UniProtKB/TrEMBL annotation:
Residues 559-574 have a biased composition (Acidic residues). This is 26S proteasome non-ATPase regulatory subunit. Residues 1-11, 548-558 have a biased composition (Basic and acidic residues). The keyword Isomerase does not apply. Residues 1-51, 155-178, 548-574 are annotated as: Disordered. It comes from Podospora pseudoanserina. The keyword Transport does not apply.
Length: 574
């Protein structure tokens, strides 16, 4: 019988293979006959592995096709409703981070947001008899969907909405059962849907309707008076200001709508300060500064800054906006050093993502002009950034004209790109650079020549007369731009010898400024650190338990119940 053993083993292998294949996929019948060959004396044939791989591929392709064919309306509705759980946790745990996560999703939802989608979410979230039905009706009225019934199932898809006016009455009847519909909706969900309504109206350029709805939403927030609404109310006031800016007459007219809403913003600021509402306080201060700058009320903006204190623990984006507007106010007030510090901090705090590219470009443009007004030349690497190279090209030409002190080139750049400078809001500041261009030219000539006549200065700077050149040189000497003497009788300027700058206190002051900037950055980083809540209590509990175990162990050692062998090694004193 030993000679028949090789024949039986393949037969057994073939039978096992047929059984396995019948359980997985009934397509491998008859393949067990191939086991007659000695090379096929394996328990698992290669064909099964191939079949499994192909089967897996088919399943994965089905999953991918299912994901690709998902209805965008259903996905948008699901994304909106997923934020309701975050708002519930924010209220239950009183943690504003969950509210912030919900607000961050607005930027991705707004690309797919429509009136039908929003009406469907409102109808499926609120019941006609619920406490939040009033705000739900206001939401539907704002988007023009008054016919939608609350508590009904609104059909999705790209066509018209189908309204099921027969609400489900059986408990536990699926997703629309009474148990789920009777759950009380917190006011934060209604305000969040109101913010989505504001976004929809803003994207649809319905300015007047958006302003009216924003007033209605602000009144509801004031009636609710809940601290969990602080982060949401800040966003409501933000869109409230944006709607007012777009209504005629446009700023800087004194009859603009932004002037009429200032009492509302000031009242909101006073209330936020009393309630220690950091989010609303920071947002409203930024909006008021923006409003004052749009109407050129610089003195009122300065009074607002001097009589209010911006919250230290405000969000980073609000801090960046506040520093930008404050830097613009200081630049208009001729306080270029303070303006430079604020604008530098604003550009550093600005997010590096593509969503904040516009703010980064605007802040950088104003920073370049302020640096030129201070007499400094910006770094050339600033203009080589790929994201800012095209938008900063007019300012690059302006910097080049100021650097060489060419007054004619400067005036041609201002005339050629005047519309761009006006649109950026830097035109009036750029007009002040004319004196800086002249001073730069005089400084370069003082470094190049030990003695130069006023006539040559007049020719090189394209001035009208030698008297103008004399007055300009005298003012430059008085302001400390150049170190020279002026001989009026002989009509020339004589430069003094350049001393060693390291013999002065200027390097030490610069080094001190850099150290102070690094220390302030360290302090801000420490303040921005977050730690898990109640983590210290767990550490204290563990430490207390460890001390108790040590006391018990020491007591047992003293009583002689334990020795070194029981401790697993040598015992060193407590």
């Amino acid at each position: 019988m030993p000679g028949k053993t090789p024949d039986r083993e393949p037969a057994r292998g073939g039978n096992n293979n047929n059984n396995n294949n019948n359980n997985n996929n009934n397509k491998m019948k008859g393949k067990g006959k191939k086991g007659e060959d000695e090379k096929m004396t394996v328990v698992v044939p290669p064909s099964k592995k191939k079949e499994d791989v192909e089967g897996d591929v088919v399943v994965m392709e089905g999953v991918e096709n299912e994901g690709e064919g998902e209805d965008p309306v259903e996905k948008t509705v699901a994304d909106i409703k997923s934020n309701f759980a975050l708002l519930d946790r924010a209220v239950a745990l009183f943690d504003a981070r969950f509210t912030l996560r919900a607000l961050r999703s607005v930027s991705s939802i707004r690309k797919r947001l429509t009136g039908d989608v929003l009406a469907r979410v409102v109808a499926e979230t609120y019941m006609a008899s619920s406490s939040g039905a009033e705000i739900a009706v206001g939401l539907l009225k704002a988007i023009g969907r008054e016919e939608v019934q609350l508590g009904g199932k609104v059909g999705g898809g790209g066509g018209e909405m189908e309204i099921d006016s027969e609400p489900t009455t059986k408990a536990g009847s699926g997703k629309n059962g009474v148990k789920k519909e009777q759950k009380e909706v917190i006011p934060e969900i209604g305000v969040f849907l109101g913010i989505l309504t504001q976004v929809l109206l803003h994207d649809g350029k319905q300015w007047q309707q958006g302003l009216e709805f924003s007033r209605y939403l602000i009144e509801k927030i004031q009636e609710l008076n809940r601290r969990a609404l602080d982060g949401l109310s800040a966003k409501v006031y933000f869109y409230f200001e944006l709607f007012a800016e777009q209504l005629a007459p446009l700023p800087p007219s004194s009859q603009s709508t932004i002037v009429t809403i200032r009492p509302t913003l000031l009242a909101a600021l006073r209330t936020a300060v009393l309630r220690k509402d950091t989010d609303t306080q920071a947002s409203v201060i930024v909006l008021l500064l923006r409003s004052y700058l749009l109407t050129s009320h610089i003195s009122q903006a300065d009074l607002l800054v001097s009589h209010t204190q911006f919250p230290e623990n405000a969000a980073n984006n609000q801090v960046a906006r506040y520093l930008y507007y404050l830097g613009k106010v200081r630049a208009i007030q001729l306080l270029y050093t303070e303006a430079h510090n604020h604008l530098t901090a604003a550009t550093r705090k600005a997010p590096s993502s593509a969503c904040a590219l516009g703010f980064g470009q605007t802040a950088t443009k104003l920073l370049l002009v302020v640096e030129l007004l201070m007499g400094d030349i910006p770094d050339r690497a600033t203009f080589r950034q790929p994201a800012m190279e095209a938008s900063l090209h007019p300012y690059f030409l302006l910097v080049r004209a100021v650097r060489v002190g060419d007054l004619e080139d400067f005036e041609s750049v201002v005339a050629q790109h005047g519309d761009t400078f006006r649109r950026d809001g830097t035109y009036t500041l750029i007009l002040r650079l004319r004196q800086n261009v002249i001073k730069t030219g005089i400084r370069m000539m003082s470094l190049s020549y030990s003695r130069i006549s006023l006539r040559d200065i007049c020719i090189r700077l394209h001035l009208g007369s030698e008297e103008s050149a004399e007055y300009i040189v005298a003012k430059a000497i008085r302001d400390g731009v150049i170190e020279a003497t002026l001989d009026r009788e002989k009509g020339y300027m004589k430069s003094k010898e350049v001393g060693d700058v390291y013999a002065t206190s200027e390097p030490g002051e610069t080094f001190h400024d850099r150290i102070r900037a690094c220390l302030s950055l360290h302090d801000e980083s420490v303040k921005a650190m977050r730690f898990p809540m109640n983590q210290h209590r767990l550490e204290l509990k563990n430490a207390q338990e460890a001390r108790e175990r040590e006391r018990e162990m020491a007591k047992e050692i003293q009583e002689g119940d334990l020795d070194e062998d029981d401790l697993g090694g040598e015992f060193e004193g407590m």
